[in-house]
Amino acid sequence: MEKLKERFSFKGVAERLTLGITRVLENMPGVVDVRFAEREPAEKRRLLSWDQKNNCILPEDLRDFYLTTDGFTLTWSIKLDNECVPLGCMMINSVARLCPLLQPASLYSLPNAPSLSDLDWEENDTDDGTGQAPAAPHFDARSRIFELDSCGGNGKVCLVYKNCTPGVVAQQSEIWFLDRSLCWHFLTATFTSYYRLMITHLGLPEWQYAFTPYGPSPQAKQWASLYQPLTFSSEASSADPAGDSHLNKLDPTKAFRAKAKVPAPNKKQSTQCSLGSAAKSSAAKPIAAKR
Question: Which superfamily does CATH assign the domain made up of 1-103+136-227 to?
Fold first, then answer.
């Protein structure tokens, strides 16, 4: 009897964790095999050990999340030609897998081998020019970066502490997306906001690229239009009234700044045109006289 009560109580916790998205997915046409991995809460000593090891303090909402469940995994598939094809995946790494993105140099690495810190230079300290975008993280000691989700190899969602000082505990964190070209894109200021975004986008492939200037791939946009039509159409209309927010538009005046040369008139053509006009005028005079 007690085991049954615990099962129902955990089911209620799982329902609150997924915000009821499992029932929404199960009622969608073609969606099959909705799976939510049940995990026990993380121990407080493991969270304290993470803080001490990484010289950072977990944000309060992420700490509460880990005290509820040590990570999050929800996957779902679709049925195509009588086969189950995995499509959606929502994932938050456990405390043990919340590892630094920048690992210390190995003893076996070459002394002059390039690293991610080589991508940082002073020009990266500025924003896009709008004055509103937050400064991007750095790959050196100025930022402490931890991987929340590997995004199936399409990038990485990271917990980022910026403006760090060696030996000082970092406290302020943000959620950023690192795409495959190693460019940073700001997602949310808090983990709770990111968690809601993840649930809202149903874990569709490349959904994080909707927050980049170039957007997801055409195939990912097709999946979004099928299983997330309201959010997908609103994002497209808010970014561009025409709805083509992810298309590369060419402005010839900016791309081709050299002035086009005006072709010189051909003398033969001008003489032929003058002779033709004279012949027409002479042919029209007798007709007018007869009338």
Answer: SMI1/KNR4-like (3.40.1580.10)
